[in-house]
From TrEMBL, chain A:
GO terms for molecular function: transmembrane transporter activity. The keyword Repressor does not apply. This is Iron ABC transporter permease. Its main location: membrane. CDD domains: TM_ABC_iron-siderophores_like (cd06550). The chain crosses the membrane at residues 7-26, 62-79, 91-109, 121-144, 156-174, 186-210, 247-275, 287-309, 315-334. Pfam families: FecCD (PF01032). It comes from the Bacteria.
Amino acid sequence: MMKDRKFFGLIVGGFLLLLMMMFLSINAGFIKIPFDEVIDVLFGNGTEDNILTIFDFRLPRIFMAALVGMGIAVSGAILQGITRNPLADPGVLGINAGAGLGVVLYMFFLQGSAFMAQGFLSIFLMPIVALCGAFLAATVIYVLAWKKNAVNPTRMLLVGIGINAFCGALLIVFQLKMDPMDFTKALVWLAGTIWGSNWTFVWALTPWLVVLIPLAVYKAKVLDIMTLSEASAISVGLHINRERRNFLLIAVTLAGVCVAVGGGITFLGLIAPHIVRKLIGANHKKVLPLSALFGAIILVMADMLGRVVMSPLEIPVGIVVAIIGAPYFVYLLVKN
Amino acid sequence: MAKKKLSNYIEKKNSNIPTLMLVIGSIVLVLLLFASIRLGATNLNFKLIGEAIIHTDDENPEHIIIMSLRFPRAFAAMLIGAALAVSGAIMQGMTRNPLGEPSILGVTAGAAFFVVLSLAFIPDGSMWVTMIASFIGAGLGVALVFTLTTISKGGMTPVKLALAGSAITAFLTALTTGVGMKFDVSRSLSFWYAGGLSTMQDEQLKYIVPVILVGLVIAILLSRSISVMSLGQDVAKGLGQNTLTIQIIGTIAVLLLTGAAVSVAGTIGFVGLVIPHIVRLIVGVDYRWIIPVSAVFGGILLLLADIVARTINSPFETPVGAITALVGVPFFLYLARKEGRGF
């Protein structure tokens, strides 16, 4: 009962915090828009310039950051559950690297011609390529971690780290063969940046999250059982291999679609669920939705910081998240 | 008495094999060294190489190519391979961790980050600046890893260590990318980052040779103690070893070896992982053999990788770090699969 009240309190508080962050983020950037003008625009009577800046540039980007943050955080929470290891994360597991390799290969072989072009097809080709890369990496990890009719979670982590290094090596080989323009684009993409910032992408990303996150929350009980020991999970009648595969599929899809538009963002999938677990405990029914919320807050904040700190130069959001996230990670590691 | 029993314990394997490996390895190493000097855009023959080494003629362009380009590069590949393999062996022995390796544990990423800083802030600094930056970075990396190993509650399992390493690497890479983008040195950096020996010069060789030799000598002197450490901290203490001193000296050796290697060749991963494991399979668990044989085999591996890097896509260079990673990762996966239960 007590926990329930805390849960709703956190949801409401988190939501308010998210709104506040979004509002601050609208205001911040290369063109500074004062608060009262932002309010004017939101209520439909701002100047034309401001309307353009806010509706065509700022808002889609902010929504994008929020959505990507949600997806990656939930993906991280699920991966931590199924690997029974608090340090799992799509970035550490090599899923980001797989997606990155897909994108770099695509840019390399098409010489960047279709990249960033505004044609309808090419806009959607990039994310699809990234998604394919992510799935390929996940499949390889799953297959290689398969031994004696089961997937050992720790082996999965180690295989993931190996795949990460492997993709990293290939990335370097292809990156060095690119011309300087493509090289820089690839570098920025790999460092994690919300580049797909227009409404089309927001609408393309939303359905995935709307379907997959509730699905994960719905099956949260299974995830709870899976975090117990293997034996007890089996003894309560859980078909552990199948469930693990299903959850892996959800986690990889979430990470894949988010990485496709947000680039290689590491640590977010790690820190958001951890902060949440510290606040509310280990019950996944609560951890998953709150992780989504906190992931969104962190990424909106990081995106804003990336735009403001070295303005007019933009720091890729992935770098901001890594700088915030890594010390926390080390702290976790020492404490666990 | 204790010493004798211990050596009985660790010398289970036939002691002829390690000597044989050392001899054969050294012969292969020398052959590869000559092969590496010979192969390249200008075709040279062995007679010419012999002449150039014995009596260099400053007027002869081929002699100049040999002595100022080919020889430093081949020699550096050999030394750096040895350095990386030995520092991997030390780390694996001291931490009793099969995944102990400078690049997995974030040491090379630390060095890379500091080199970027030095490139960004001291753009026309000498070789020394890069070298010192690399040492500081490697030092911080090693310190971080060992601190984590010792203060982590419940000890540091291989999985934790590997995760910590990959996270630290991700973090430092993010910082490196940021600095590189801000100061526009990313591309010149990325080849270095991928590891390469193409820019090796006499000058650089002069800096790293003494450092690596000192590191190797320390490692060999320490090898008996590392054998004891590899039996476990408790056993080592029980046998009267001063574990802290050994750890400190071992860390210094790792620092010298990795720092020197990274400062001139960039981040070349997985040599330190693959070689000690293979050597352990062949010569057993005695580090008095593992360390010298690792040095020889490490030199062989990197010489080979460098020859491949030059010839596979000639006239372009492929980063040698990418080649060692592509060879090393399958091995890493094999280890993960084999020992997965124990982690």
